[in-house]
Every structure is written in structure tokens, then in C-alpha cells.
Amino acid sequence: MTRATRIRHHLMRAAAAACAALGTIGAIGLGLQATSATARAEEGQRQCQAGIENYITETPWTNTLFNVEALHEQSTGKGVTVAIIDSGVSVDNPHLVDAIVEGTSYVPDDDSHGKQDVYNHGTIVAGIIGARRINGSSLVGIAPDAKIMPIRVFEALRQENGQTTGGPDMFTIAEGIRYAVDHGADVINISMSDTHDVPVVKEAVAYADDHGTLVVASAGNRLTSSSTVDGMRYPAAYPQVVGVSAVTNELLSTEDAIHGTQVDVVAPGANVASTIPSGIDCAFSDGSSTSYATAFVSGQAALIAERYPDETPAQWKQRILATANRAHPDERDDEYGWGVIDPIASLNVALSDDIRGPSAEGGAARLQADQTTERVTLVPLHDPNALAKRIVMLMTIATVVICATAWLYSLRRRDNADSTQA
């Protein structure tokens, strides 16, 4: 065997080994994300087990997104009451002990006045809005001094024969809206939606608006809806309501979110930190993403209501929509509405007629010329495994090139051999 032949022989063996390793490398690359996701899920499950006291110590990504330290120097929601029409709110979480005021319950044989939650949903929403700071936890609500009024309209959702049951009817939600208004709520959070335009709900929303209360509602979730098709959802679609959809920490629409003309703005709805019963913090994925996003906007509304108590609900809504971050100031779409909410900017606008974007009663809004507070720069958080995945991808590409080169070289040798034999 000549030296050139030996070199070719070793190259072929190396190429064959590389090609054999290709499947392994691909498997590692595919497994990287799965393993990481599994680890996060297992950690989240451990962290969310009822009865295990555990506090989130890392800064939630939403705190960074909205620069809550600077935000809370301007407003904390003090003196504002946010009614939460939901599954109730647990009073045994230390973040919420001082936040909850008297509410009511429409659940039969329940005298908890809304201060009970076996489903967790209402307590999660409450924490996003008004969780108080406590030692050992980095969790804090978007409006940490707002009061929470729990209005319990259902106990728990259940899956029966492929159908979701146990939820509230729209008539009960309408009653809850009127109760909240009559008992002093400034903002009403409804992290629920329905495909039906029910007159009593429409009338209740108008009643709230007439009495100075802003309603914020979910634009719809696929996983908890009887219809997964994009389209109108109520009460989010009513003109007095702020309709909210959800985005991930990459500021992309969550898979769970319903889209349509009812979407006014979007807010975080994935990997969100909040409270659950049993006195612990928890991190949630996007299973009820617009529910969580709605809570962020209700918290923002509470901040605005403290800062501008003499404005109308329409003007509060205008601040939220006009200051949302979007690529094109004059355009909205059914997926993101007018953009990602910007609480700091919404506190620092002067109502005027020369804004680009949504118009509303009371004029439009623009940043004050003498305002020194900078708007939030929204920076999406990227996949922590991105570098490793890129390395795997490059290794895979290199291996494919080696395999292809070896294969072509083999074909060329075979053709030469055939020519010689001929």
C-alpha cells in the first residue's frame, strides 16, 4: 500500500467514523433542549408543591422588563382597589395578607367572602397585581400597594368527557362587575373570556365605565376555551374594556393566546412568577397565558389610577394603549394589538391631540416634552442554551460536509475503477 493510498484509507475511516457519529451528535443536539426543559419543569414542579415553603430568589424577568424599581418610585397603586373576578384569593400567602379587602362569593354554601381559592387561578392573578414584598423573596406585584377585592364566581374548572366544566356563567360575572363597582373598585380584572356577547355583561361593563371603573379582560386562551379558533371574545371586545393577549419572554405571542380585534395590548404570560395558596411563590408557564397578562395590565391600570385619580377610565385606557411599544406607531394588529405594555411611559404622558396611534375619549397622549424619565427599552430574554445549540449545529454541519466529501470521493474512485476495467 502506497503512502497516498494509506492517507486516503485513513481519511475514509475518519469520514466513516464522523458519519456514524452524526446520529449521536444530532441526538445530543435534540436532547439538549429537551433535557433543559425537563429540568426546568421538574424544578418548577418541586417549587410549586403545596405545603413546601419556597420563595423565588432570582429576579423575575418581568421585574427587569418593566424596571419595577424605577416604576415603583413613581407609583405603587396606593389607595387603589382592584377587584379580581375569579376563583377567589387565598389569604394564607404572606405576600397577600395585607393586600386583601372584603369581597364576596357567588359559589353555593361559601361564606369565605372570596377569601378562599382551591383552584389557585385567582391567587396567581392577585400576586401578579399586588404581591407585597417579603423577606427572602424577590417576588413583588406590579402595583404592590393596591388593595385586592376578591370576587369568587367559580370554584374550579374540571375536564369531563373532553369538555371543560365548572366555570362561571356570564350572568354571574355581570353580577360580580356590579358588586365591584358598588363597593369601590377602581379597576376590575377579569382573566376569563367567552365567545358570546351577553347583554347583561355588556350592560355591567357600561355601568362600570359610567361609575369610573376600568375593566381589564383576557382576550382568550386556547387551552381553557370551548373554542380554539381566533375571534371575538367577551367582555374584552367591548369598547370600554382593555383586551389583553400574551407574549413570552422573547416578546413573541404565546401558543395559548387567542387573537382578534378584541386585543388592545399584550403583556407577559409565560414563565411568570406569582403566588399560590400555602404561602409560597411559584413560576408558571403559558398554560393560562392571557390570564397572567391581564393581571399585569390591571396592575398597570392601578398605578395610573393612583397617579391620575381625576381621569376617566377611557383616559386610563388611552394611556395604556398609546404608550405600548410597537414597531409602527400608527398600526395595530390582531395578534399584538397596539403593542407590549410600558407602565413607566403610561405614567409619564400628557393627554393631547397630536399622538400617533389609537384615539380615545379625552384626547390622545404623548410623552411630556420636559419628562426626564426614559421609556422602557424592551429587551427579550433569549434561550440560555443558544450558544451550546449553535455549537452542536456547527458540528453537525461540519460532519455533513465530511460525509458528503467522503461519499463523492468514493464515487470518483469507483468510476475510475470501472473505467480501468473497461
From TrEMBL:
Residues 77-339 form the Peptidase S8/S53 domain. The chain crosses the membrane at residues 391-409. The keyword Membrane applies. SUPFAM superfamilies: Subtilisin-like. The keyword Membrane applies. InterPro entries: Peptidase_S8/S53_dom, Peptidase_S8/S53_dom_sf, Peptidase_S8_Asp-AS, Peptidase_S8_His-AS, Peptidase_S8_subtilisin-like, Peptidase_S8_subtilisin-rel. GO terms for biological process: proteolysis. The active site is at 86 (charge relay system), 121 (charge relay system), 291 (charge relay system). Residues 1-41 form the signal peptide. It holds the Pfam family Peptidase_S8. Keywords: Hydrolase, Membrane, Protease, Serine protease, Signal, Transmembrane, Transmembrane helix. One of its GO terms (molecular function) is serine-type endopeptidase activity. Belongs to the peptidase S8 family. This is Subtilisin-type proteinase.
